[in-house]
Automatic annotation (TrEMBL), chain A:
<feature type="transmembrane region" description="Helical">
    <location>
        <begin position="187"/>
        <end position="209"/>
    </location>
</feature>
<keyword id="KW-0813">Transport</keyword>
<keyword id="KW-0472">Membrane</keyword>
<protein>
    <submittedName>
        <fullName>Amino acid/amide ABC transporter membrane protein 1 (HAAT family)</fullName>
    </submittedName>
</protein>
<dbReference type="GO" id="GO:0006865">
    <property type="term" value="P:amino acid transport"/>
</dbReference>
<comment type="similarity">
    <text>Belongs to the binding-protein-dependent transport system permease family. LivHM subfamily.</text>
</comment>
<feature type="transmembrane region" description="Helical">
    <location>
        <begin position="6"/>
        <end position="24"/>
    </location>
</feature>
<feature type="transmembrane region" description="Helical">
    <location>
        <begin position="264"/>
        <end position="287"/>
    </location>
</feature>
<keyword id="KW-1133">Transmembrane helix</keyword>
TrEMBL record, chain B:
<dbReference type="GO" id="GO:0005524">
    <property type="term" value="F:ATP binding"/>
</dbReference>
<comment type="similarity">
    <text>Belongs to the ABC transporter superfamily.</text>
</comment>
<dbReference type="GO" id="GO:0016887">
    <property type="term" value="F:ATP hydrolysis activity"/>
</dbReference>
<dbReference type="InterPro" id="IPR052156">
    <property type="entry name" value="BCAA_Transport_ATP-bd_LivF"/>
</dbReference>
<dbReference type="InterPro" id="IPR003593">
    <property type="entry name" value="AAA+_ATPase"/>
</dbReference>
<dbReference type="InterPro" id="IPR003439">
    <property type="entry name" value="ABC_transporter-like_ATP-bd"/>
</dbReference>
<dbReference type="InterPro" id="IPR017871">
    <property type="entry name" value="ABC_transporter-like_CS"/>
</dbReference>
<keyword id="KW-0067">ATP-binding</keyword>
<dbReference type="Pfam" id="PF00005">
    <property type="entry name" value="ABC_tran"/>
</dbReference>
Length: 290, 242
């Protein structure tokens, strides 16, 4: 008889990494603009669907970078249409505008791909590999590895390139960033491009283990948002830790208590963390949107 | 070098500054003095493109800056050291300096490291603290870094908003010694200051502001000796430096 705990942890970590990647995407735009795209779930679904259509033409591996670029373009459009017009006003119109943009994207994709969920073929054989007493599907390794690789790449860009430092400067002090010559509007567009690129990538990564359809992103985006709040909307590391905590708590509950209650512990952790540390586990307090 | 013609601007409907005319010649240090709320910061913000003028215009070396956003103004050669420093607090001292040169077109290695060596020689403290987070520097160090960051742009004109703000007298004296040195090197600068005697002591030319208007102007030496300026517009609070 196999010990099931490692097995449960594997599925928790897999899910958790996806939540973390989505949370990471929220964090990217929050720091530069104090706004997020509440249509990230739809960005994720559209990414997965575009990936599904491109795979027969390009093959899985060549499809990945194309979907990431597509997600980036999608983010530029979201920022231009739903966020920028409301940025310089004191209103919080971006909340409604990004939700509305997501609804439109969902309707358009229902017209193109239909409402039914479609299977997404995994590029890797369904042969489990044994790692530390658990059987891990190659697809799960791809999810975790792909998500971590993308996040590490973005963090390296942020920390070690002048343009990345300009993103951080805009996050710290937007007006002063303008004074040293940084076009902060472009930086904010860029952060939306990166954010939706991570969502689209999360979509193609997770699609083989869920199903693919216009509605696939809704719950994922909500969990990702909880992860972002839990980790602190201002920290990339916080996003990943927040995602893993929620993913693992969910897998443990689903197995040891009941699948019906799997959402509960994530919520409890979130509420407890916010009571003890309102800025999130790794967050810092930022100035409000000006 | 910098010409301001009939400049008006404000926040929302009402103008805060009215019909300002100012001129700053190459190599000159011009100061703009006036009490709390006179509109000095608003004037500098309008010059550097953070606020849109409601009337008039600003010319930098012949370029009309009207309607340009601050990153474009910066690229044309104007560096603004804002009120309250506004450093990139989570970034290192070095990153703040590197970003100071963000708008430069001559971003070849040699030119940047020349200016980096220069600012680290002017502000030796920053060399010791180069990998420290800017937000954790002391107030005096932060002001030094804010000036150093602006110098990294190798600006044609540098404008400084209350470099003495919140500093102990000894540090204010240090900051002003550096300003005097930069002036001696022939840099073109505009300094806004509440402590009129400080600014008048280093400036070539001075403008006095009250209620959003220029009420006096003249050579700094002349205004310095004029009791009526101090009494009428500056609330009579000179800062005595040891
Ligand atoms: N963001 C703003 N919104 C609305 N009004 C403002 C804003 N900033 C400044 N004001 C108003 O504009 C006027 C001029 O302010 P400004 O900051 O330019 O004065 P200042 O001369 O720099 O004063 P201080 O010496 O205190 O810095 C003041 O009456 C102030 O209340
Ligand atoms: Mg001021």
């Amino acid at each position: 008889m196999l010990d099931v705990l490692p097995q449960v942890l594997v599925s928790g970590i897999t899910l958790g990494t996806i939540y973390g990647l989505i949370a990471f995407g929220y964090q990217l735009t929050y720091v530069t603009s104090r706004t997020v795209n509440f249509g990230q779930g739809e960005a994720l679904a559209v990414g997965a669907l575009v990936g599904l259509s491109l795979t027969p033409m390009l093959g899985y591996w060549a499809m990945l970078p194309v979907v990431i670029v597509f997600g980036g373009l999608y983010g530029l459009v979201v920022e231009r249409i739903a966020v920028r017009p409301t940025l310089d006003s004191p209103s919080e119109g971006w909340i409604l505008a990004t939700i509305a943009f997501g609804i439109v994207a969902k309707n358009v994709s229902e017209n193109i791909w239909g409402k039914e969920d479609l299977p997404f073929p995994s590029p890797l054989p369904p042969l489990p590999i044994e790692i530390g007493g658990a059987f891990v599907m190659p697809t799960e390794l791809l999810i975790v590895g792909g998500a971590l690789l993308l996040m590490v790449a973005i963090e390296l860009f942020n920390r070690f390139t002048l343009l990345g430092r300009a993103f951080a400067a805009t996050a710290d002090e937007r007006e002063a960033a303008g004074l040293v010559g940084i076009d902060t509007e472009k930086v904010i567009s860029g952060s939306f491009a990166l954010s939706c690129a991570t969502a689209a990538c999360a979509g193609v990564l997770v699609a083989p283990v869920t199903l693919t359809g216009p509605g696939m992103g809704l719950v994922l985006a909500l969990k990702g948002f909880s992860a972002a709040i839990l980790g602190g909307l201002t920290s990339g590391l916080g996003a990943v830790v927040g995602g893993l905590l929620i993913g693992i708590a969910e897998a443990l509950t689903a197995f040891y208590i009941s699948t019906g209650y799997k959402e509960v512990p994530g919520l409890l952790i979130l509420l407890a963390a916010l009571t003890l540390k309102p800025e999130g586990l790794f967050g810092r307090v930022l100035a409000k949107k000006v | 070098m910098l010409t301001i013609e009939k400049l008006s601007a404000g926040y929302g409907r009402a103008d805060v500054i009215h019909n300002l005319d100012m001129k700053v010649h190459q190599g000159q240090l011009v100061c703009l003095i006036g009490g709390n709320g006179a509109g000095k910061t608003t004037t500098l913000r309008t010059i550097s493109g953070m606020l849109r003028p409601s009337g008039g215009r600003v010319l930098l070396d012949g370029h009309d800056l009207r309607g340009l956003p601050s990153h474009r103004v910066s690229a044309l050669g104007l560096a603004h050291v804002p009120e309250g420093r506004k450093l990139f607090g989570s970034l290192s001292v070095m990153d703040n300096l590197r970003l100071g040169a963000f708008a430069r077109k001559d971003r070849v290695r040699g030119a940047l490291s020349f200016d980096l060596d220069f600012v680290l020689e002017v502000f030796p403290l920053l060399r010791e603290r180069r990998s420290q987070q800017a937000g954790t520097l002391s107030g005096g160090e932060q002001q030094m870094l804010a000036i150093a960051r602006a110098l990294m742009a190798r600006p044609q004109v540098m404008v400084l908003d209350e470099p003495s703000l919140g500093l102990a007298p000894k540090l204010i004296a240090e900051v002003y010694a550096i300003i005097a040195r930069l002036r001696a090197e022939g840099r073109t600068m505009v300094i806004v200051e509440q402590f009129a005697n400080l600014a008048l002591a280093v400036a070539d030319h001075a403008y006095v502001m009250a209620n959003g208007c220029i009420v006096r102007e003249g050579p700094a030496r002349q205004l310095r000796d004029d009791e009526s300026v101090r009494n009428a517009y500056l609330g009579g609070h000179p800062l005595e430096l040891a």
